[in-house]
Amino acid sequence: MTIIGWLQISLLFLAVLIVIKPLGLYMAEVLSGGRNVFSPIFGPVERGLYAAAGVDPAKEQGWLAYTLSMLAFSMAGFVSLYAILRCQALLPLNPQRFGNVPPDLAFNTAVSFVTNTNWQNYGGETTLSHFSQMAGLTVQNFVSAASGIAIALAVTRAFARSAVSTVGNFWVDLTRATLYVLLPIAVVVALAFVAMGLPQTFRASVEATTLEGVRQTIALGPVASQEAIKQLGTNGGGFFNVNAAHPFENPTALSNYLNILAMLSISAALLYTFGQLVGNRRQGWAFIAVTFAFLIVGVGVVYWAEAAGNQILTALGVDPAQGNMEGKEVRFGQAMTALYATVTTGLSDGGVNGMHGSFTGLGGLVPMFLIQLGEVLPGGAGSGLYGMIVFAILAVFVAGLMVGRTPELLGKKIEAREMKYAMFAVLILPLAILGFTAISAVLPSAVASIGTVGPHGLSEILYAFTSAAGNNGSAFGGLSGNTLWYNTTLGVAMLLGRFAYAVPVLAIAGSIAAKARVPASKGTFPTDTPLFVGLLIGTILILGGLQFFPALALGPIIEHFAMLAGQTF
Fold first, then answer.
1. Is 9 a domain residue?
2. Of 356, 386, 399, 474, which sits 20 to 30 A from 87 (CA to CA)?
3. Number of helices (H), then strands (E), in the chain
4. SS3 386
5. What confidence category does residue 305 fall into, taking pLDDT thresholds of 50, 70 and 90?
């Protein structure tokens, strides 16, 4: 580890902290329906969309109607994207003349992008046409992120209001999140990416001659526009197979910085937006403190583990001075690869600029564990916020047990109904991750897809279902996932991770909204103090540790000690 490396990491976190407040205030204003700088441009578009869809923006929905609207919209997105992929050969903007995507892969891909996961069992530049990338994937990058923001808004209103039966209007929240938040920022970021060298063209490829005289076909396409919303919406699905390790997705150290800043900006700012809308900015900063604590420790562990190197490679004569550079871009080095890996898995982004499967045992454990903690650090666009609130509900319940009082969060009593819904939500991840991993680890056809035997092979399977159920989308590497088994089961895990989590969260919102806000008393446990930050961190860690530590012990932890002993598998 070097001072320059830590300086690079520190400057990035500082940039995020600078962005959080103004962006959070902006989102609080526009998502509440306030007039903003883009109102003259998008206001008529917004009203036209409502008129075309028959939506009355003044009419709010109860939690059940809100949930059904979200599910119906997601189903429509799945059907449309599946149809695009299955009919790709017949559609325009296919200069590569790609054929139709097979049914199981089309199912996996459609589910992946509708759930904001963006797990990719295909190589983008060798499988999907420009039309599929733009009208299919990029559109879902916008609206799946907007759906997450909408759910977070419904939960936020539940705490901001008192004794009401409605939580907002899903169609209004979806439209405003897309038009006023995601779209204008994505345009700016895309233009910045173009200036940095990312392609934005309808051409299929160019021919180049290498220094050795070999003719090479280099894939092109509308990369910059997809890259921008991929990061801003915490989607992560890259235009190219190797994602942000590809020089056309991430050509320079500056573009790498912008990638990470774009990933963190909206999700982190939404925590501030929450505090602003519920009338307690300190609560928002408390949630931000939790996320940064995890991210700083996470990047520190990964950076240390990778900079320390791999003793097995050192024994083979590899120079240990640069640490473990296997699977990493020399353009970015240890520090920025460690930061990227930690941020992309603390979020539900899934983009990568290095191969996580080539990390050391501890280096690979951290990204996996951050996903298993619930994707709340700060998690996906919107989904991270409502995931954090679920853990906050559990934390105040624990605090209430300690002091013998009914737990409260922001003036709302947390009772049996909310706890049941919260536990249902948090148990979805271990059910999907550990259940499918256990079956895959003993199913011969599933085991045949792993690239490495021993604990690393188990880690490949565990990471795949962790990434899918956590709606992350990053891959450990080494697992051949484009099979009927993995396309199907990973798709099911994505659906459970998104919707079996979101539905009970919206039920919590409906229950909380119906409660009257009560003023704080001497017995109220404050939830915007360092003490609560520590309690919330402990709650997240204990749940993650108890649920996943045994599985991790059989994978990356064994691999770490085997590396120290110089043992290979």
1. no
2. 474
3. 22, 4
4. helix
5. very high
**Which DSSP letter does residue 47 get?**
H
Please write the tens of the pLDDT for every residue from 140-199: 999 999 999 999 999 999 999 999 999 999 999 999 999 999 999 999 999 999 999 999
Q: What is the pLDDT of residue 564?
A: 83
Q: Tell me the C-alpha to C-alpha distance, in Å, between residue 506 and each of 61, 163, 239.
A: 12, 16, 33
Q: How far apart are CA 370 and CA 356, in angstroms?
A: 13
Q: What number of other Cβ atoms are within 10 A of residue 217's Cβ? A: 10
Phi/psi for 202 (5° steps) reads: -95, 0
The reply to whether 364 and 263 lie within a common domain is no
In angstroms, the CA 340 to CA 336 distance is 6
What pLDDT sits at residue 544? 77
User: What share of residues in the chain are helix, strand, coil (percent, to 5)?
Assistant: 65, 5, 30
Q: Decide which of 225, 252, 279 is a domain's last residue.
A: 279
Q: What range defines the domain where residue 48 resides? A: 33-279
Q: How far apart are CA 556 and CA 560, in angstroms?
A: 6
Instruction: Specify the 3-state DSSP secondary structure of 252.
Output: coil
Q: How many residues does the chain have?
A: 569
Residue after which a domain boundary falls, among 279, 300, 318: 279
Residue 448 near residue 457, CB atoms below 8 Å: no
Count CB atoms within 10 A of the CB of residue 262. Answer: 26
DSSP 14-32: HHHHHHHHHHHHHHHHHHT
- Asked if the model's pLDDT at residue 340 lies above 80, the reply is yes
Burial class (CB in 10 A: 0-12, 13-18, 19+), 565: exposed
SS3 at position 165: coil
* C-alpha of 522 from chain center: 39
pLDDT in tens, 314-324: 777 877 777 88
Mean pLDDT, residues 119-132: 93
Backbone angles phi, psi at 217, to 5 degrees: -95, 120
The answer as to whether 23 is a domain residue is no
pTM: predicted TM-score of the whole model, two decimal places: 0.95
Has residue 333 been placed in a domain? yes
Rounded alpha-carbon distances, angstroms, from residue 195 to 129, 192, 198, 495: 24, 5, 7, 37
**Strands 412-413 and 215-219, sheet pairing:** unpaired
Domain count of the fold of the chain: 2
Percent of the chain past pLDDT 90, that is, above it, reads 80
Q: What SS3 class is residue 362?
A: helix
Strand partners, 412: 409
